[in-house]
Amino acid sequence: MKIERAIDLKSLQRGIDQDSEAQLSSVKSILNQVKEQGDAALFELTEKFDGVQLKELQVSPEEIRQAYEEIDDEMVEIIKEAARNIEEYHVQQKKQSWFFTRQDGTLLGQKITPLDSVGVYVPGGTAAYPSSVLMGVTPAKVAGVERIVLISPPDKNGKLPAGVLVAANESGVAEIYKSGGAQAIGALAYGTETIQNVDKIVGPGNLYVALAKREVFGTVDIDMIAGPSEIAVLADQTANPSYIAADLLSQAEHDPRSAAVLVTTSEVLAEQVAEEVDKQLQTLPRREIAGEAVRNYGAIYLVDNLKDGIHLINEIAPEHLEVMTESPMELLGQIKHAGAIFLGPNSSEPVGDYFAGSNHVLPTSGTARFSSPLNVDDFTKKSSVIMYSETAIKDNAKKIAAFARLEGLEAHARAVEKRLGETEHE
C-alpha cells in the first residue's frame, strides 16, 4: 500500500456515475423489458445473465427443507443467534406515535405507520450473503411491515445458497424469489404475474442493481444508492499492525473497487501495516480481488496528530470506521461522519457485518455526511395529525387568512374564514 503525506481524496472516488453510461443504457432496457413482459422477461434474463433455465421463480418449501440438510446444525444456531442480536439492536430504534394538546383544545401529533410491503434484495455472484438477509428483513419485521419479499440471483443449478434460504426462513420470510440484477429490481418495482410489486426496495448490490434502484425511485422508495464497500482505520502508535491489515483486507476482498484506508500519526505503524497487507494478501482465497482493490483504492495517510486525523476521517465520511487509538471513546464525540464506528482493538469490522446486531447496510462513497445505516425508521412513514378546537380556529383564523393572502392564495384565506361564519365573499 502507498504511504502518503500529500492527501488527495479524489483518488478514492468511486461513484456509480463513473464510466457507467453503457451500464445505465442496459439497465433502462432491462427495466422496460420487465415492465412489458413480466415473468417472461425474468426467465429470459436469468438465462442470459446467470446461465440457468428456471422452471419457477418462487422458492419452494422443498428447496428450503433441502437447505437445512446442507447446513450443519451448529451453523443454523449461529444464524439464529445473529438474528436475535440484530433484532435486539433494532428494537431499541422503534418509535411510537405521539400527541400533545394546547390549552385552547388543539391536538397535534405524529402517527407512525409501517409500510405495507418491502422487497429485500440479497446479492449473489461471487459470494453468498445470509447476513444481508438478516440485515434487510429484521428492521422491517421490527417496524411491523406485513409483507416482506426476498429476491436473490440463483446459482448455476437454479438454486439460492443454503445459508440465504435458512436465514430467510428463520426470519419468517414467506415469499422468496430467484432473480438478480436490474431485472429483480424491476420485478419488485413494477410487479410481474408471479411477483407482486412492493412499496420499498432495500439491500446492497452491484453497479447494475444500484443504477436500477435509482431508476425506479419514485415508483417505489429505496434505502440508498450503495457503492462499493469501504473501510477507514484511524490509528496511533499503540495499534496492532496485523489487526489493521486484516481489517483492511476484510473489505478489500468484497470488490475490486472497494476502498481500504489507514489514517495514522505513526510512520512506523504505517510501514508495518503496508508490509502486513502484502504478507496477508498472499494467502487470501480472494487475493486477486483484494489485491486489485488495494492497488487502486488502498492508501495509508500520515498525519501530524489525531486532530488532523479526525478532520480527514470526517472528510472521507467512510462506510466503516475503526478507531484503534489509546483512548478511542475520547474521540467518539469528534467523529461526525461515518456509517458505522468500531471502537478499540477487539471491534473488528466483521463483528458488525455479522453478529453484534448493528446493521451492515451502510452509506458509502461519502454519503455518510448526510445519511444513516438502514434502520427501523426506513420501514415506517409518518403522518402529521392536526385537530383544531372551535376556540383555536376562532382565535387564529384571521392570522392564518392573513398569511394565505401574503402568499396570494385567496381560497386558502376564505377556507379558514368560513369557520368564523363570514359570508362577504359568497
From TrEMBL:
| Pathway participation | Amino-acid biosynthesis; L-histidine biosynthesis; L-histidine from 5-phospho-alpha-D-ribose 1-diphosphate: step 9/9
As recorded in UniProt, its EC number(s) are 1.1.1.23
List GO BP terms, alphabetically: L-histidine biosynthetic process
The catalytic residues are E319, H320
The positions annotated for binding Zn(2+) are Q251, H254, D353, H412
Cofactor binding description = Binds 1 zinc ion per subunit.
Q: Which cofactor does it need?
A: Zn(2+)
The question of whether Amino-acid biosynthesis is a record keyword is answered with: yes
- InterPro entries in the record: Ald_DH/histidinol_DH (IPR016161), Histidinol_DH_CS (IPR001692), Histidinol_DH_monofunct (IPR022695), Hstdl_DH (IPR012131)
Listed binding positions for NAD(+) are Y121, Q183, N206
What is one GO cellular-component annotation here? cytosol
On the tree of life, the source organism's domain of life is: Bacteria
- Please provide the record's keywords in A-Z order: Amino-acid biosynthesis, Histidine biosynthesis, Metal-binding, NAD, Oxidoreductase, Zinc
- Top enzyme class: oxidoreductase
Positions bound to substrate: S229, Q251, H254, H320, D353, E407, H412
Which reactions fall under this protein's catalytic activity? Answer: L-histidinol + 2 NAD(+) + H2O = L-histidine + 2 NADH + 3 H(+)
Gene3D superfamilies recorded: 1.20.5.1300, Nitrogenase molybdenum iron protein domain (3.40.50.1980)
Keyword Oxidoreductase belongs to the record: yes
Q: Name one GO molecular function term.
A: histidinol dehydrogenase activity
List, alphabetically, the NCBIfam families matched. hisD (TIGR00069)
Tell me the protein family, please.
Belongs to the histidinol dehydrogenase family.
Role description: Catalyzes the sequential NAD-dependent oxidations of L-histidinol to L-histidinaldehyde and then to L-histidine.
Name of the featured protein: Histidinol dehydrogenase
The source organism is: Fictibacillus marinisediminis
